[in-house]
Design a protein that fits this description.
alpha+beta; binds zinc ion; Mss4-like_sf; peptide-methionine (R)-S-oxide reductase; oxidoreductase; Met_Sox_Rdtase_MsrB
Length: 159
């Protein structure tokens, strides 16, 4: 099975569980300082940015535009401009996704336990607009890896 087909199959499973999630969101749903309707997000984001940030998608490995970016600067949330990662924390993990050792501030990123697909991971979300960014992996002791989709980021060269 091709990876794309597998993802399509998995996202079908996700859709089936949406009603339960919607009820949860009404009861104790998290509100963010920046909130927009789906239609508004679709208008300001590219289809890939929308898929990754608003539908918790994952871009193809080794395909993101910032994977090999070595320039100095700030990586901001593509949805709301929140400062997320500085280039100083970026490293080559060999995994195919931009990887960082730490965020600019723990306050700018929300970490949510994620057990989807039978895995035990920590989802990374922008604390200002709720955008899905990627996942935090802590399998190597003392070396956290913030694995982030290029599509969720906007790079700003400089400082
Ligand atoms: Zn954001």
């Amino acid at each position: 099975m091709k990876r794309r087909d597998l993802l399509r199959c998995l996202s079908g499973t996700l859709l089936l569980s949406l009603p339960a999630m919607a009820v949860f969101a009404q009861d104790g749903g998290k509100r963010y300082p920046v909130e927009k309707t789906d239609a508004e997000w679709k208008r300001i984001l590219t289809p890939e940015q929308y898929y990754v940030t608003r539908q918790k998608g994952t871009e193809r490995a080794f395909a993101g535009k910032y994977l090999n970016n070595k320039e100095k600067g700030m990586y901001r949330c593509v949805c709301c401009g929140n400062e997320l990662f500085h280039s100083d924390a970026k490293f080559d993990s060999g995994t195919g996704w931009p990887s960082f050792s730490r965020p600019v501030s723990g306050r700018n990123i929300e970490e949510i336990k994620d057990t989807s697909y039978g895995m035990n991971r920590t989802e990374l979300v922008c604390s200002r607009c709720g955008a899905h960014l990627g996942h935090l992996y802590t399998d190597v002791p003392g070396k956290p890896r913030y694995s982030v989709n290029s599509a969720a980021l906007q790079f700003e060269k400089g400082h």
